[in-house]
Design goal:
Elements: E1 8-11, E2 25-28, E3 44-46, H1 57-64, H2 74-85, E4 87-92, H3 96-100, E5 113-114, E6 121-126, E7 137-143, E8 168-170, E9 173-174, H4 180-184, H5 188-199
């Protein structure tokens, strides 16, 4: 099936979020358009839920019983759609989903590295380089796209924090905290970078 040129499906995104109202972008994840029902043919940008895969998922399972990796199949679906139609999947750095789906972990120094035997590539970036108030270390997985250069490397440790641990910089200096809603928000510059990547899969 031919793919609509320059049209992108944004999966698992918030209603009224940064992907809403954009020409050539179809947001999926709204109540009336379930991302789990997406089956092509457009390339995708996927932001599957991460709470069951993050570094604290094991602690959450031990304390509250929410099983690590029990995300209702959202990561697996996002991965399958990226592999089938091209595009990019975004998840927190050090996500347990990578090992659970036999993906290689990228180095923190930046650059694209081979992710799997399906022709995928992965990299480490920080959304702080794109305007997020925290570092927000992130892993990307792509297939079928041009491996464009991104803003590689680790930023300064003095940015705001998302977690509630390790906030001391030394002495009496502490990093500011940010609210959950702001922490999960995708910066416009980062959204545009993901769109730039995904659109190289169009045609």
């Amino acid at each position: 099936m031919d793919r609509p040129v320059d049209r992108i499906a944004a999966l698992f995104v918030e209603p009224g979020g940064v992907y809403s109202g954009l020409d050539g972008v179809e947001p999926w994840g709204l109540p009336e358009r379930d991302a789990m029902e997406y089956s092509g043919p457009m390339p995708v940008i996927a932001h599957p839920p991460c709470s069951r895969w993050c570094q604290l998922a094991g602690l959450v399972e031990a304390r509250w019983g929410h099983r690590k990796g029990d995300d209702g199949g959202t990561f697996a679906h996002a991965l399958a759609m990226v592999r089938a139609f091209g595009g990019v999947l975004e998840h927190p750095a050090f996500s347990h989903a990578w090992s659970a789906h036999d993906l290689n972990s990228p180095p923190t120094g930046g650059g694209w590295v081979n992710a799997d035997f399906a022709g995928g590539w992965t990299c480490y970036i920080e959304q702080g380089a794109y305007g997020h108030p925290a570092r927000k270390a992130t892993w990307l997985y792509v297939t079928g796209v041009e491996l464009l250069p991104l803003r590689w490397g680790c930023g300064e440790a003095s940015g705001a924090l998302i977690s509630w641990c390790g906030n001391k910089l030394g002495g009496d200096v502490e990093r500011p905290r940010i609210a959950k809603a702001l922490a999960s928000r995708t910066p416009i510059e980062f959204r545009d970078e993901l769109l730039r990547l995904a659109r190289t899969a169009c045609g």
